[in-house]
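TA notes. Do not distribute before section.
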Amino acid sequence: MIVLSKLADYGVIVASHMAAHPERQITASVLAEETRLPRATVAKLLKTLAHGGIVAGVRGAQGGYRLAREAARISVAEVVAAIDGAMSVTQCTSHDPACSRSDFCTTRPHWHRINTAVGTALAAITLAEMLPMHHFTSIEPRLPRSETRAP
């Protein structure tokens, strides 16, 4: 099973929430409350995402954070990389020194292809595409024409 770190998962949640409200400059406390994540975790994520160029922060009494670019121009891969660094599905696809099996391992080249495919898939999805489905639908249910109410 390939699993993102909990922090990377939370980072995507935070960045996606910010993408749903691009006009807002939001504090870590408000963001934590709205996403139901611990405030300390959100604060840590925002600093990391700011360092990675995903969000931009403004200091002061009216300070807060917002996405550094349009949500459609930020990929999930960028968010994950800002938090976890370069993605690797196995030890031999990371930039760590080669393992003792690298000279004769028959699966190593295939793991590189798999790693590239997963990275490409994450890079193909933007924060705009990660918006919650209710963001695109009306809160009021639509009635079929035959059931519409007369004014």
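Switch to the second chain here.
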Amino acid sequence: MRAIPGLKALTFYVPYAWRFFVLRRPEPLIYGVAPTDRCNFGCRGCRVANTGRPEMSWDRLVETMRSAWRRGFRELYFSGGEPMLWSDGGRTLEDAVVEARRIGFFHVHVYTNGTLGLDTSADLVWVSMDGLPGTFELRRGDHCRQVERAIRANTHSRVAVIYVIDRNTADGIEPFLRWVSSSQLPVLGVMFYFHTPYYGYDELYLDAEERAPLIDRLLESIRAGLPVLNSSAGLRALQSGDWPRRLPIASVVDVEGESVCCRAADYVCRDCGYAVCTELTEFQRLRPSAVRSMLRYW
């Protein structure tokens, strides 16, 4: 994210830091909004898109963000579906980003597949890219070069990549990282998640024993200077399972209601692959690598 904007944020974060780092209180901080489940992709491993649920209206979206702010949340992100598809009465996602800042959220992030462009004033845009051509298609279809062009054409947004590791994309990790580096893709780096079986276990799922050597490869990639955004501490926590589920400082809402941490059922938490959760946990534990990593995109 961009630098913390102003005195209001500083006034909030100084006492919050004491409660977060020292007292370890589970107070609200990060709020996610999925205003639509429509998506122009049909990714393998996704069951939250194109379900036919109605979209949030503008009025409901605004009231949802206001309610979150009143309850103490100060960081906000938009996801989906594909959030760039959302609109209501002429309002678009960019209007929602602007409104979130007007309400008082310090930073706003957007999670997108990148094919609709990156035209947003959000503080950071997370773009999904699960490998190079030949690997990317196995999860997201034949859109890799289209996403690359959108990232390279972007002129104002800060961008980072999310790469989901599953059984089909695992072999593409190092080639993708080397390509990001050698081609000078204009991104902060690559955050790696593991496929999370929130809709059930299938051939994409990798269990803890299978994840372990892949995490070792990511750690080696960090040591080699490749552009991995995950911290060493966060990856080791993901490997060991030593982190709390659900993460109490985060919530997410869609048209059907609000959930703590994510929209998956409780039984999925044991096999969660959302690495940002371990990053936040290790950040709270003040692990140096997690602090350094977090400051790159916070």
